[in-house]
Every structure is written in C-alpha cells, then in structure tokens.
Design a protein that fits this description.
With 468 residues, the chain is an alpha/beta fold. The chain is built from 15 helices and 8 strands.
C-alpha cells in the first residue's frame, strides 16, 4: 500500500513537471525568434541600392530597388525613358575611381535588371536637351516677305503728292501717226496714273484749255488752269472721265500752271513730284524757270519733271532749263509710243520689285531650311556621341564588375541590356533626326516653289501688260 502511494506520487510529480516545462520552451522559442528579428533589424540586410546610397555623397537618391517589386510598372514612351535625370557620374562628372568605389558597394546576388538600374543611377547620360529639341522642333518654314502691290505703295511714314500738268493749248490738236497729241497724252496719262502708288495723293491739272489761239483770247487762255482731278492713287480710274470732253484750245501758260500747283499740295506732304506734259514752250510771258525753282526750294520740296512731246530743238532747250531749275529731268518724246514708254517705266520698276521679292523670298526659304536642318543634324550627332560615351562607360563598369565578381553575377544578360540601351538611344536619335529633316525639306521646298511661282507669274503678267 505504501509502495503504491509512493508510485502514484512519483507519476503525479513527473506529470506536473512536464506541464510546467512546455510554457517555458514556448517562451524560449518566442524569445529566440524575437532576438533573431531584432538582430536582423539592427544589422539590416544591405541591398545594392542601399550600398550605393551610402557610397554616394550629397544626399539620398531614390533607387528602383526601394520600390515594391510586386507593384505593376507603367510602360514608358521612348521620350520618357530618355528624359530621366542623368546619373551621378554622367558627363563631366565622370570619375572612374569614384564609379568603381560605388560599384564596390553592390552585392553579386542582384538580378540583371537591378544591376542595370543601379548603373543608370551612376552612368546614364543626360539626353533631355536633345530629346526636348526634337519634341519641340518647328519644322515649318515661314517666309514673311511683303509682296509688292499691283500699284506701288509708299512707306506709311511718307506722304507723296504727284501733280500731272497737261498742256491743252491749241498746238496739241496736231496729229502724230493719225492720232492727235491730246488723245495720245490722255491715254498715256491714264495708263501712268493707274500705276501710281495707291496711297499717294494725285492731282491732274490742265492749262490753256480755254479761249483760242487768237490774240484776243490770249488773256483768257493764259489765265486758264484748272485742277480736274484730285484724289488717291487708288481712285485714278476716275481720271478718264475727267479727261473726257477736254479739247485743245488756246495758249501755253506753263508758269501759271506751275504756280497753281502750290495750292494743290497738302501742307502735310513730305514729297512732291510734278510731271508737265507739253508740246511747246511758255507763250504767256510767264517765267516757268523761276516758278519751278521756287517750287523746288519751297517748304514742301517739289521736283519738276518736263516731258517734251514733239518739241523742236529750241523748245527742248527752254523746257530743259525749267526741269533743271525744278530739280527734275527733261525727257523728249516724239510720238505717242515714246510718251507711253516713258510714263510706263513704272511697270519696269514694279517688275524689278517682284523679281527682288522672288529672289529674296526664295533665298530666305533656303536659308531657313538649311539652318533648321543644320540644327537637326547637330542635335542628332551630339546625342549619338553621348550614346557612345555612355555605352563606353557602362562597358567599363561591366568589366570592373566581372573582374571583381567573376561568374558570381549575370554578366551576359547585363551585357545584352547595355547593348540594347545603346541601340535604342542611337536609333531614337537617328529616326527622329531623319523624320524632322524630311519634314523641313518638304516645307522649305514648298515655300520656295510657291514664292518662285508667284514671282514669275507676276513678272509675266506685268510684261504682258506692258506689251499690250
């Protein structure tokens, strides 16, 4: 009985001891686990990114390895890939020893993608200026070359007055080649007026159109001078109507007509030109030489030109003196065709302006095109030089890692990615350069052709008008 009691006591003791040990063992395991975690937290497992950040002075750089690897990545465009900031040792910051020191911080158990991202943080070149140039490049060629008007236009800062004085004395009844001098003069003046600057002030004055050539009508005729049109160059189509019904009549008061010009000129006029069409000299006892001189020396300086229409030698000599004193020129014409040719010099001037416009515009189109193409070529070539430099630096880093780690890192896969990077960046520069170059060529050639075609058309039109 006593033995049985002792045995039962021993079994109970063992049972209780066993129950007391289990919690202690569990607590020990939990403590061990906690200690292990605290140890890992204190030491921190070094990733390549962490090592590089410690090896780089000047603050932390966020590494792709710091992001959640399980998060999906958004696909980037070519421009976005190349617009990333450059590496720490890109461009002039490159230092082989510093690069190697940074590479020493990397561990050999990283993937090729992780190595590549770390290498970019160190060695990626700055392509942003070149990509920005490509993205924002304006390929359109624009030439802002002011076209000549069908009628010449003066600078807005000038106010031009043109006076036409037409001899309506009896001698203008004489015929040349079956047509009266007056009819020939009317046609020539109308043709001339149609080509005057649109914004010029134009007046047409006749003289000697009253009375007859008889002595009894001399005073009436010599006092007869009348402005029959006054308007802008764009209104000269009204001159034909003003000339209708005008017939040659009396004497030739050139001095009186020139004196009357003073009242026709606007005080705000800056330039004044007079064209006198006459078939003879002064016959009203006036002094046209002095009046012409006065006009030329007046506040509004006026140039007096004389067109002698079928005038004899003595008459030419006297009329030339009038022109000289008026600061102008004397021109002698002996038929209606010569009169038209003189007044129609405006056509030749306008044709010359269109030729200049064409050559200037075409030249500007070529200059713009070649300048833009030069910028594109330079951008492409400079970027490709940078691609080669980046590739060389990446390969040098790869070689160092190979020497350091031997076969303990993904050398072949990394070499492939470095090659792909070079091919991608090089091809981007080449393809963008070619596309933009071609667009500039197309735009520049079109502008050039349009300018040449328009210039030639206007020159041809003016030539046809002159010949008709």
């Amino acid at each position: 009985m006593i033995r049985s009691s002792i045995l039962l006591f021993l079994m109970l003791f063992v049972f209780l001891a066993g129950c007391g040990d289990k919690p202690e063992m569990n607590a020990s395991k939990i403590q061990d686990s906690s200690d292990s975690n605290q140890s890992k937290s204190a030491v921190e497992i070094q990733t390549p990114s962490d090592s590089v950040k410690r090896g780089e002075p000047g603050g932390e750089v966020q590494s792709p390895l710091d992001t959640n690897q399980n998060e999906p990545r958004t696909s980037l465009t070519d421009e976005q890939l190349l617009m990333k900031p450059p590496g720490r040792f890109a461009g002039s910051n490159y230092n082989e020893q510093k690069v190697q020191d940074a590479l020493d911080q990397l561990t050999s158990n990283s993937t090729a993608d992780q190595y590549m991202e770390e290498l970019f943080l160190l060695l990626a070149e700055d392509y942003r200026p070149y990509v920005s140039t490509f993205i924002n490049f304006e390929t359109e060629v624009k030439v802002d070359n002011q076209r000549p008007d069908d009628k010449m236009r003066l600078p807005t800062s000038k106010k031009l007055h043109i006076s036409i004085l037409l001899d309506a004395s009896g001698s203008m009844k004489a015929q040349i080649s079956g047509k009266s001098k007056m009819d020939s003069a009317k046609e020539a003046i109308q043709s001339f007026a149609d080509k005057l600057p649109k914004n010029a002030e134009v007046s047409l004055r006749v003289y000697g159109h009253k009375g007859t050539g008889d002595q009894k009508d001399k005073q009436l005729s010599c006092n007869s001078t009348e402005e029959i049109f006054h308007g802008q160059g764009e209104q000269t189509n009204q001159i034909k109507e003003a000339l209708n019904g005008l017939d040659p009549a009396g004497w030739t008061p050139i001095a009186n007509a020139l004196e009357s010009v003073k009242q026709d000129i606007n005080p705000e006029t800056t330039d004044s030109i007079v064209y006198v069409v006459s078939d003879g000299i002064e016959t009203c006892d006036g002094n046209p030489v002095q009046i012409a001189k006065d006009l030329n020396q007046s506040k509004v300086k006026t140039v007096v030109n004389i067109i002698g229409f079928d005038v004899d030698n003595e008459g030419q000599k006297l009329l030339r003196q009038v022109a000289t004193s008026g600061g102008g020129e004397f021109t002698s014409v002996d038929n209606d065709e010569a009169l038209k040719n003189y007044l129609n010099k405006t056509y030749d001037k306008l044709r010359g302006e269109w030729t200049i416009w064409k050559e200037k515009g075409a030249g500007e189109a070529n200059i713009q095109k070649e300048t833009k193409q030069g910028t594109i070529n330079k951008t492409q070539e400079t970027m490709q030089i940078l691609v080669n430099k980046e590739n060389s630096n990446l390969l040098a880093a790869l070689k160092y890692l190979e020497t350091k780690n031997g076969k303990a890192f993904p050398r072949s896969e990394l070499f492939k990615k470095i090659t792909e990077r070079k091919n991608f960046a090089w091809k981007y520069a080449r393809d963008m350069g070619k596309r933009l170059y071609d667009e500039v060529s197309k735009s520049g050639n079109k502008v050039y052709d349009d300018i040449v075609d328009e210039g030639n058309k206007n020159v041809d039109d003016l030539t046809n008008k002159k010949n008709n």
